[in-house]
Specification:
Elements (H helix, E strand, L loop, with lengths): L1 H18 L2 H16 L1 H7 L6 H10 L7 H13 L5 H16 L1 E8 L5 H15 L2 E8 L6 E6 L2 E6 H14 L1
Parallel strand pairs: 1-2
Antiparallel strand pairs: 1-3, 3-4
Helix pairs in contact: 1-2, 1-6, 2-6, 4-5
């Protein structure tokens, strides 16, 4: 399915770029993702044991402010093909394409305790300066790293966590 999610995202992105509506599609995809991901809606729309006609009628009956004709067509296509549950992956892949088009990069920082807004913004600015691209920074908390941070930018991971350092020391002690 990863391939089909990429194909959907690429096709939507190309349409959005041609129309100059990348931001509009980004918002619309986020809304569609929330709608299709709602447990009550998913019980009908993503359930292939529910007859096709019932699922399609349910799509038509949704109140969808913020979803235009093309967005509704996308929803129909995903529900009809049994891929409504993949909308999150499609939206995520679309965002990666939109970021690349806009010269942005996504980064994720993981710390043992939550970063303050000021620290998160400072890190975002530092990364933007170092990379020469606008950075969208997501912050996560994982107490298992003990301290320090994990920084993922694209497919590059920098592990500056206390847990990693302790593991390094442990391996050095075991070797000697």
């Amino acid at each position: 399915m990863a391939g089909s999610a990429s194909r959907y995202a690429r096709a939507i992105f190309e349409l959005a770029r041609e129309d100059g509506r990348i931001d509009r599609w980004s918002k619309q995809l986020s809304l569609i993702e929330r709608i299709l991901g709602d447990p009550t809606a998913a019980a009908v729309l993503s359930n292939l044991s529910v007859p096709h006609e019932v699922r399609m009628k349910a799509v038509e009956q949704l109140d969808l402010p913020g979803v235009d004709r093309e967005g509704l067509n996308l929803m129909r296509m995903l529900v009809s093909s049994g891929r409504a549950n993949r909308m999150g992956e499609i939206a995520e892949r679309f965002e990666v394409l939109a970021d690349a088009e806009a010269g942005r990069v996504r980064a994720t920082v993981t710390t043992a305790i939550p970063l303050s807004d000021a620290d998160r913004e400072s890190l975002r600015k530092d990364l933007t300066k170092q990379l020469g691209k606008d950075v969208r920074l997501e912050s996560r908390v994982d107490p298992a790293i003990l301290g320090g941070l994990l920084l993922q930018v694209g497919d590059r991971l920098t592990d500056a966590s206390v847990a990693a350092r302790l593991d390094q020391v442990r391996r050095q002690v075991l070797v000697k």
